[in-house]
């Protein structure tokens, strides 16, 4: 038996799904619904995991309809594979 337990650190994946275009009126990204300030906070190493977890809920609450469906699908894909659906499609088209 191994004397050392393996500790898995769960990283909270960024909600960016590679759309990266903000609405000029609201300031929200069309893909992830974050503001520029929220994007900067997400990258800040001092930002807590609890804030990030709460932020995912806040972002989903800003979305509805097809935007929420597309975000949820792409974000879940990113969590499971490491790449958003849009980024994966871009990479695939570049390989052709």
The average pLDDT score comes to: 90
Radius of gyration: 16 Å
Structural class: mainly alpha
Backbone shape = globular
Spans of at least 5 consecutive residues whose pLDDT stays below 50 are none
Helix content: 40-55%
**From N to C, what is the helix and strand string?**
HHHH
Main sheet makeup? none
**Terminal residue distance:** 49 Å
Continuous helix count: 4
- The proportion of residues in beta strands is under 5%
Oligomer: single chain
What labels would you give this structure?
96 residues, mainly alpha, 4 helices
How do the helices and strands line up, and which of them pair or pack?
Elements: H1 36-43, H2 49-62, H3 65-81, H4 85-95
Explain this structure to me?
- There is one protein chain.
- The chain is mainly α.
- 52% of the residues lie in helices and 0% in strands.
- The chain is globular.
Summarize the structure.
The chain is mainly alpha-helical and 96 residues long. It has a domain at 36-95. It is built from four helices and no strands.
């Amino acid at each position: 038996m191994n004397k050392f337990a393996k500790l898995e650190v769960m990283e909270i994946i960024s909600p960016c799904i590679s759309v990266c275009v903000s609405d000029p009126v609201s300031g929200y990204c069309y893909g992830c619904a974050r503001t520029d300030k929220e994007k900067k906070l997400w990258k800040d190493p001092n930002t807590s995991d609890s804030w990030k977890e709460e932020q995912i809920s806040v972002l989903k609450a800003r979305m509805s309809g097809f935007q929420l469906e597309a975000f949820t699908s792409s974000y879940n894909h990113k969590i499971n594979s490491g790449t958003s659906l849009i980024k994966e499609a871009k990479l695939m088209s570049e390989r052709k």
